[in-house]
């Protein structure tokens, strides 16, 4: 499989790392920033191309991994070389119909991954334009399945997937950070606390998954009547922590709907 990547930033690196670990496809890459392209090429064994159109010509699947403000420049440059090739956009908030306005009725796939694909633990939404055949859909789904869990969905759900799963790792990191700050406030060193708190999060997740526990069951098992945990939970409720988290995710959702 020949995969071209346009834009060699954070997400492209996560994708390339995962592809290298799992399926070992031949990679071609281009970035407007030559230093970034060179580094990417060295780290992931990708062949560096001189421009966007060369990248398209060398590949059968082309992943566009630039920021939303840059995608239309890229599409303008590649539109005449696409033909029957598959364009995969991971760009947040840019719909298939917006992409078609520039390149026409081509085979287009929208994927909303998250950075956890670099450790094969991504959760990603995928939707297709009607030009993509069933065989091609299967090929793309299998490619991304090697990076984590795939939700094949309708495009109308992509903004929600962006807010929950695309942005999710940053939100989770923010919660982890609040635990670490609390540990530091209580006199523990930051690095050691971070490692232990990562085990706390991981342990809770593995416990819930292995024993099929709900969040309520975990809370019931931990919260002794008149004990310490209920003091913390009551304070979280008083400060509407859950409401603030939901509102934060809804803000990300609104932004995904109106990114440009
Ligand atoms: N970072 C994340 O966690 C996620 C990001 N996304 C989406 O992925 C896309 C990329 O995000 P990041 O990797 O975080 O951004 P980034 O800023 O790390 O990478 C973007 C790269 O595109 C390059 N670039 C800009 N214009 C270009 C052009 N005309 N031709 C070639 N390269 C060009 C930049 O030099 C840069 O290296 C964004 O559209 C974002 O919405 C989607 C899911 C998660
Ligand atoms: O913050 C962003 O816009 C991108 C999309 C999802 C994660 N990062």
Account of the 3D structure:
It is a single chain. This protein is an alpha/beta fold. The protein has two domains: 2-158, NAD(P)-binding Rossmann-like Domain (Rossmann fold); 168-257, ProC C-terminal domain-like (ProC C-terminal domain-like fold). It is 55% helix and 15% strand. It is built from twelve helices and eight strands. It has helices at residues 10-22, 34-44, 52-58, 71-78, 96-103, 134-145, 158-166, 168-185, 190-210, 215-222, 229-238, 241-257, and strands spanning 2-6, 26-30, 47-48, 61-64, 86-89, 107-112, 122-128, 148-152. Strands 3-2-1-4-5-6-7-8 form an eight-stranded mixed beta sheet, with helices on both faces. α8 (168-185) crosses α9 (190-210). The longest helix is centred in the C-terminal third of the chain and has 21 residues, at 190-210. The radius of gyration is 21 Å and the shape is elongated. It starts with a strand and ends with a helix.
CATH C-level category of the largest domain: Alpha Beta
Strand order of the largest sheet: 3-2-1-4-5-6-7-8
Total DSSP helices: 12
Number of E-type strands: 8
CATH superfamily of the largest domain: NAD(P)-binding Rossmann-like Domain
CATH topology of the largest domain: Rossmann fold
Category from helices, strands and their pairing: alpha/beta
**What is the CATH architecture descriptor of the largest domain?**
3-Layer(aba) Sandwich
Number of domains: 2
Please state the oligomeric state of the protein chains shown.
single chain
Task: Please estimate the helix content.
Answer: 40-55%
C-alpha end-to-end distance: 33 Å
- Specify Rg, calculated over alpha carbons: 21 Å
Instruction: Note the run of SSEs as H and E.
Output: EHEHEHEHEHEEHEHHHHHH
Shape estimate:
elongated
Note the main sheet: 8 strands, mixed
Q: Average pLDDT across residues?
A: 97
